Amino acid sequence: MPLREEAIRAGLTTRRIGSAIHLLHEVDSTNDEAAALARGGEADGAIVIAEAQRRGRGRLGRQWQSPKGLGLYLSVILRPAIPPHDAPVLTLMSAVAGADAIERTTGLIAAFKWPNDLIVHGRKVGGMLGEMAVEGSRLLYVILGIGINVNQAEADFDEELRQTAGSLRVEAGHLVDRTAIARSFCESLDGWYERFLCDGPPPILEYVRRHCLTLGRQVTARSGDQEVSGLAIELDDEGRLVIRGASGELHHLLAGDVTLTG
């Protein structure tokens, strides 16, 4: 069933998220659409949702497969009055909201794999992409994009992804209401955003630490030209992954590609 703005708005009790809803048929990228709206002055909390993306983006320039009518492809504009160095925590916040929406809508428990994957039963069902615009030392806006595989069947994924990708439909064993997922995500994000504006990053980081399956595991992380292996021991107060190497040295990674090795 196609998404409809009035159905998403029905019963939506948010304070900020969903202040405007731009529901589009097909776009290159919801993050790109949201950024264009933000540059034009669109308000804090406005969201862009598309039925399909031609060039949906994941981290490191990877493509996020976004077939028509099967997933949730959503981006939100945020304009918090915070220093730019606090902004990366907002991507973690979107992961928390995504996991909460999945659980409330389907009963499935989604764990978080640093830096931006939602995992159900060992398979990736969602991912986040945070981007920001800065002028000097001032944060202009943040775009938080989330993609959730909702009603894909296994055959809908490219063959090379079928061993690692999953969907809520496959894991729950039935079709899932995309409107309910969208509404639940907006409501959860709204609550966490209000909390962030009042209390800063600590509540988000505390939640992610409790639900991050990366912590306590042996990992190999690649960030730019750097490759680090060791034990993922914590998330620091900026949301960076802290890895203890074989010699006891500590590495703090703000972003990267992480493989669980043990």
Automatic annotation (TrEMBL):
Domain BPL/LPL catalytic: 6-197
PROSITE patterns per record: BPL_LPL_CATALYTIC
Domain of life: Bacteria
Cited InterPro entries: aa-tRNA-synth_II/BPL/LPL, Biotin_CoA_COase_ligase, BPL_C, BPL_LPL_catalytic, Transcriptional_repressor_C
Pfam family, one: BPL_LplA_LipB
Gene3D superfamilies for this protein: 2.30.30.100, Bira Bifunctional Protein, Domain 2
GO MF terms, alphabetically ordered: ATP binding; biotin--[biotin carboxyl-carrier protein] ligase activity
CDD domains reported for this sequence: BPL (cd16442)
EC number: 6.3.4.15
Record carries keyword Zinc-finger: no
Cellular component terms (Gene Ontology): cytoplasm
EC top class, as a word: ligase
Protein name: biotin--[biotin carboxyl-carrier protein] ligase
Organism name: Candidatus Methylomirabilis tolerans
